[in-house]
Amino acid sequence: MIDLSHVNAWVFDMDDTLYPREQGLMALVQARINAYVVEAVGLDPQEARVLQRQFLDEHGTTLAGLMANYTIDPEDFLRVVHEVPLDGVEPNPRLAERLKTLPGRCFVFTNGAREYAHRVLDRIGIADCFDGVFAIEDGDLTPKPEPSTFRHMIERFDFEPRSSAFFEDTPRNLEPAKALGMATILIGDGHGKPLGDHIDHIAPDLLDFLNALTFKDAA
């Protein structure tokens, strides 16, 4: 039995968490990121993909790696790579209904751009389920899993970490959450990355996990 009865702040990553990876949105974003790296750095596509994976491992996002090693316009990067069609993302009214029944407040914590995040949430039909969105711009372009970004997010939304839960598809992004006392839930298979005891629960599907929760004070 999953006991999250202590939780009154529900924090969700967005991409591949609030919608299934199979809907393919991140593949479109990744393709635009690869193309941007090819042009910005002057590598061929295969070399650019290798560099991008290195930046993800070392810096958390491709943007952070580019900013650390090259001179680029971060606003241009965010605009270009997030200009993707959302046709493959399906509205999810059942998820909207379930999010609205969670006791307390709900937030989005994403390494994506702010405008993109609002577009995606609108497309899914869950924008009005959240009390706030913390995008990459809100963390001064410093991405998860940087602990300082988690602290800024918590300060912005003003909640107690030990009374919160964080849902995320990237295992290492759950490490600072666990260190702060948040309940941690991995959505999906972790993309083949190592798992660890910093993950409290693993759920193949977000909605199924939320539907399995029960609360003593529920109507």
UniProtKB/TrEMBL annotation:
<dbReference type="InterPro" id="IPR036412">
    <property type="entry name" value="HAD-like_sf"/>
</dbReference>
<dbReference type="Pfam" id="PF00702">
    <property type="entry name" value="Hydrolase"/>
</dbReference>
<dbReference type="InterPro" id="IPR006439">
    <property type="entry name" value="HAD-SF_hydro_IA"/>
</dbReference>
<protein>
    <submittedName>
        <fullName>Pyrimidine 5'-nucleotidase</fullName>
    </submittedName>
</protein>
<dbReference type="InterPro" id="IPR010237">
    <property type="entry name" value="Pyr-5-nucltdase"/>
</dbReference>
<dbReference type="InterPro" id="IPR023214">
    <property type="entry name" value="HAD_sf"/>
</dbReference>
